[in-house]
Design goal:
By secondary structure, the protein is mainly beta. It contains two helices and 15 strands. The chain folds into two domains: about 90 residues, Thrombin, subunit H, CATH 2.40.10.10; about 100 residues, Thrombin, subunit H (Beta Barrel). It starts with a strand and ends with a strand.
């Protein structure tokens, strides 16, 4: 493949590392997408419609990339590279997906997120801070943490459009290569998309939980952007 190309790879038959996690069962996360730069998994994403994938804006800072399978990338125009606010982007696929048991969209979690609720992060990222990415999709359960606690750990850098998840003592987390991937929460009948892997310090460190974009904060913008909202900008 060409250097710098972005390829959307939708897992059809991969089994399902992430820190402290395990391989996921095949097809158990049918909305999970791998975004590949020069054929290496670089970021994650989630299918939210036949032609739409959601991911993190910080995955798409390069402007010289060649898009494969994607007609455009729409990053939130208020995304701030320093504070990581509005770290959200949409990818429009060239061709609509055909949904089946292996490829399916995920709905967005719309009710308040209860503290301590357990949710699941999935991705092909590193299994340890220094390790490279893995070939099999990984999953790990994390607990949502109170915003106040999180801001103690991060000295006030976690804004209301973000939330933290992990464990105070560390050991479970997303890592390099998981960025933009989904944090999915079970609502009693099915999983819904609550967060996108955004930032953190290291991977799985004590009192340094992962920080996630709170997707429900951007629902109006997401709805408009699918019909060319000015709140998102093309890259």
């Amino acid at each position: 493949s060409h250097n710098g190309e972005i390829l959307v790879f939708i897992s059809m038959d991969m089994e399902t590392r992430i820190i402290g996690g395990q391989e996921a069962w095949a097809h158990s996360w049918p909305w999970q997408v791998s975004l590949q730069f020069s054929s290496m998994p670089a970021c994650g994403g989630a299918i939210i419609g036949p032609q739409w994938v959601i991911s993190a804006a910080h995955c798409f800072k390069r402007s010289e990339v060649e898009l494969v399978g994607i007609s455009r990338i729409i990053s939130h125009q208020e995304y701030d590279t320093k504070t990581k606010e509005s770290d959200i982007a949409l990818l429009k696929l060239e061709h609509p997906l055909v949904f089946n048991e292996f490829v399916r969209p995920i709905d967005i979690w719309m009710s308040p997120l209860p503290e301590t609720m357990k949710c699941t992060i999935t991705g092909w990222g590193s299994t340890r801070e220094s390790l490279f990415r893995v070939d099999l999709l990984q999953e790990v359960n994390v607990s949502l943490l109170a915003l106040d606690d999180c801001n103690e750990y991060y000295k006030g850098r976690v804004h209301s459009s973000m939330f933290c998840a992990g464990k105070d003592e560390g050991g479970v987390d997303a890592c390099q290569g998981d960025s933009g991937g989904p944090l999915s929460c079970f609502n009693g009948t099915r999983h819904e998309l609550a967060g996108l892997v955004s930032w953190g310090v290291g991977c799985g460190r004590a009192k340094k939980p992962g920080v996630y974009t709170k997707v429900q904060q951007f629902l109006k913008i997401l709805t408009f952007s699918c019909s060319n909202s000015p709140s998102f900008q093309r890259t």
